[in-house]
């Protein structure tokens, strides 16, 4: 996780929201990371993060098995065309991926597939290079959307 955090933190204009215990953010988000393109340092009011790192199951999102010690998931918004390129399916298709708990594998996000999100549980040797590339692309896409 540290390698990916360092990668994203190196991007120009990145804003990392990392709620800590006792903060004003919902308890379920404590310990997780949310990444925005926000060069002014303010969380954008009408934009979702372009990537997240979650360290636990969220209500309604338990298929990745993140409540096991040490498991975490990188989520990246890559859009429809990159989704087809990386996953080999259209994000609006039902898809063939059913085991969202597989580690070190690029998979459609269990909930946000149709919006062009992918997920990687415990990125490792097979997926770290692609994860870094997809994070850069997602950041650049967020910057373009912000500038338009």
What is the residue-averaged pLDDT?
Answer: 95
**Uncertain runs with pLDDT below 50, 5 residues or more?**
none
Name the overall outline: globular
Strand elements, count: 6
Number of helices: 3
Strand order of the largest sheet: 1-2-3-4-6-5
**Class from helix and strand fractions:** alpha+beta
Please identify, by name, the CATH architecture: Alpha-Beta Complex
Give the C-level CATH assignment. Answer: Alpha Beta
CATH fold name, please?
Answer: Aspartate Aminotransferase, domain 1
Largest sheet geometry: 6 strands, antiparallel
Helix content: 25-40%
- What is the radius of gyration computed over CA atoms, rounded to a whole number of angstroms? 15 Å
Number of domains: 1
List the helices and strands and how they pair.
Layout: H1 2-9, E1 14-17, E2 33-37, E3 51-54, E4 73-77, H2 79-87, E5 106-108, E6 117-121, H3 128-147
Antiparallel strand pairs: 1-2, 2-3, 3-4, 4-6, 5-6
Domain DUF6194: 2-146
Protein name: DUF6194 domain-containing protein
Pfam families: DUF6194
């Amino acid at each position: 996780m540290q390698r990916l955090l360092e990668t994203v933190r190196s991007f120009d204009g990145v804003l990392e929201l990392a709620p800590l215990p006792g903060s004003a953010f919902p308890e379920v988000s404590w310990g997780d990371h949310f990444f925005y393109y926000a060069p002014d340092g303010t969380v954008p009011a009408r934009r979702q993060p372009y990537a997240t790192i979650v360290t636990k199951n969220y209500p309604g999102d338990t298929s990745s098995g993140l409540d096991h010690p040490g498991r975490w998931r990188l989520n990246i918004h890559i859009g429809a065309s990159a989704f087809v390129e990386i996953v080999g399916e259209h994000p609006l298709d039902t898809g063939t991926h059913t085991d969202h708990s597989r580690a070190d594998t690029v998979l459609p996000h269990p909930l946000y597939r149709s919006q062009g999100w992918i997920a990687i549980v415990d990125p490792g040797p097979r997926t770290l290079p692609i994860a870094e590339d997809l994070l850069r692309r997602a950041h650049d896409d967020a910057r373009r959307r912000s500038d338009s």
